[in-house]
């Protein structure tokens, strides 16, 4: 199935793949746990690429490592985790203690669907590697670990995290308190239709890239997720991120948090309400570098304790102003603070944002059709702006070419003058050499005259006669 996903300036083509027994490996088989093997790891060891492992309800001890392209299906595979109670009698539960993860994925195109993964006091619930891509993490309850999902990928194939519940992943340890966390490289990722509760002490979703060494966090779509009395979507050193149609209410920090170093972030049609801090907070606190190209439109932003939009001084530097137009700020007269109204405040000490016009009523709830229209309109606006920039660049290029032509003409004239000067100099040198030769000859003649002696008396001057007679 070909699905077009578009956000802001960029369009992602997402090819969803499905495992079909016999399509790539005629020996693909289905393995049952505990029917064929008592443990999940034993079944993985016996499996080949493209096999399916089905795990019956029960409690299984981790950790497990999947290093083959397989489907690992729990008893609740295909059942949205947000609709489940997590009853032990109906769940395939993986539990245990591992400093790495209870479920570690070390190959491309691995599916983990329909499990409860819980109670790892030493590491993550699930971990993926930045050496691979194409992970599908579907319909899992991931709870009470240090980190819920430690998500990394090289992005060769899109990875998807859908219809999971991440709850209270706050066990003591490094990077604790994150539902989904990445700091080792993440590209081409869809996080869609998940629920985050707990609350997580740090962030519901925390995407971090670095520049030295180059570990990118780019091409990420975060859509249709629920953060209910949980924590932020946090971005640091990211590029090309779309945040659309999410609901964040009563968050324990800013609903959407920028830690610095981000570029090209589109925030569209989200509900950002009643956080204990800000709806959107733009800072440089983690990376120390500025953010650029942020656009936040058609969002329902209200009831946040500090501000709807807070931009720390020096945190946003971009050729384009931060576009926060067409948002609902909780009042028909617009935002307060630096705004004209009484809604959630906008704090913009550097005057880098646009927030007028604003919506005078809450936006239409997020639907596929509405989002598509909004994204299409946004793309058309971006296209028009890009065309204007292109026209301006072409004008600058034409002016530069004219200046170059004038410079070339001046250079040609200068070269002609230089040639004339060189010719005049050569002529002067010839004249000088002629004068010098004449002077030398004159001196020779004078020396000859001074040294001449009378052939009669042998004296100079002559003493025996008049010089004119003998000399």
From TrEMBL:
Among its keywords, does the record have Coiled coil?
Answer: yes
Q: Which residues form a coiled coil?
A: 376-445
Alphabetized InterPro entries for the sequence: PbH1 (IPR006626), Pectin_lyas_fold (IPR012334), Pectin_lyase_fold/virulence (IPR011050)
Which residue ranges are recorded for the region named Disordered?
Answer: 326-345
Is Coiled coil set as a keyword in this record? yes
Instruction: Recite the UniProt keywords alphabetically.
Output: Coiled coil
Taxonomy, superkingdom = Bacteria
Q: What name appears for this protein in its UniProt entry?
A: Right handed beta helix domain-containing protein
Annotated source species:
Peribacillus frigoritolerans
Starting at the broadest rank, the lineage of the source organism is: Bacteria, Bacillati, Bacillota, Bacilli, Bacillales
């Amino acid at each position: 199935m070909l699905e077009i996903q578009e956000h802001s300036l960029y369009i992602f083509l997402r090819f969803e793949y499905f495992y079909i027994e016999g399509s790539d490996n005629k020996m693909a088989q289905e393995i049952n746990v505990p029917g064929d093997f008592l443990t999940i790891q034993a079944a993985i060891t016996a499996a080949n690429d493209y096999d399916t492992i089905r795990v019956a309800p029960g409690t299984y001890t981790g950790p497990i490592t999947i290093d083959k392209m397989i489907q690992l299906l729990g008893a609740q595979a295909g059942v949205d985790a947000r609709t489940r109670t997590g009853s032990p009698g109906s769940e395939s539960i993986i539990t245990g203690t591992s400093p790495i993860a209870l479920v570690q994925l070390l190959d491309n195109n691995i599916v983990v669907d329909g499990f409860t993964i819980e109670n790892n006091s030493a590491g993550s619930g699930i971990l993926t590697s930045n050496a691979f891509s194409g992970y599908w993490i579907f319909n899992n309850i991931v709870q009470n670990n240090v980190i819920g999902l430690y998500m990394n990928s090289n992005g060769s194939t899109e990875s998807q995290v859908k219809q999971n519940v991440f709850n209270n992943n706050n066990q003591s340890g490094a990077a604790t308190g994150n539902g989904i966390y990445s700091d080792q490289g993440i590209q081409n990722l869809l996080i869609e239709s998940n629920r985050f509760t707990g609350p997580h002490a740090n962030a519901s979703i925390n995407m971090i890239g670095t520049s030295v060494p180059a570990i990118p966090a780019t091409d990420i779509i975060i859509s249709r997720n629920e953060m209910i009395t949980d924590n932020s979507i946090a971005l640091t050193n990211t590029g090309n991120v779309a945040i659309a149609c999410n609901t964040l209410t009563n968050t324990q920090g800013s609903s959407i948090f920028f830690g610095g170093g981000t570029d090209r972030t589109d925030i569209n049609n989200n509900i950002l309400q009643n956080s204990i801090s800000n709806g959107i907070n733009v800072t440089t606190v983690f990376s120390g570098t500025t953010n650029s190209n942020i656009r936040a439109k058609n969002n329902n932003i209200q009831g946040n304790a500090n501000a709807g939009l807070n931009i720390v001084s020096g945190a946003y530097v971009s050729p384009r102003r931060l576009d926060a137009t067409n948002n609902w700020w909780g009042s028909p007269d617009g935002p307060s603070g630096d705004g004209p109204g009484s809604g959630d405040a906008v704090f913009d000490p550097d005057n880098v944002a646009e927030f007028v016009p604003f919506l005078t009523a809450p936006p239409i709830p997020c639907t596929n059709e509405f989002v598509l229209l909004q994204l299409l309109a946004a793309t058309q606006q971006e296209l028009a702006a890009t065309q204007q920039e292109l026209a301006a660049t072409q004008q600058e290029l034409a002016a530069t070419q004219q200046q170059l032509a004038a410079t070339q003409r001046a250079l040609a004239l200068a070269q002609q003058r230089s040639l004339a000067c060189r010719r005049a100099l050569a002529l002067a040198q010839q004249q000088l050499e002629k004068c010098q030769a004449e002077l030398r000859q004159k001196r020779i003649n004078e020396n000859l005259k001074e040294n001449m002696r009378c052939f009669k008396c042998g004296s100079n001057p002559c003493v025996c006669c008049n010089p004119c007679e003998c000399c």
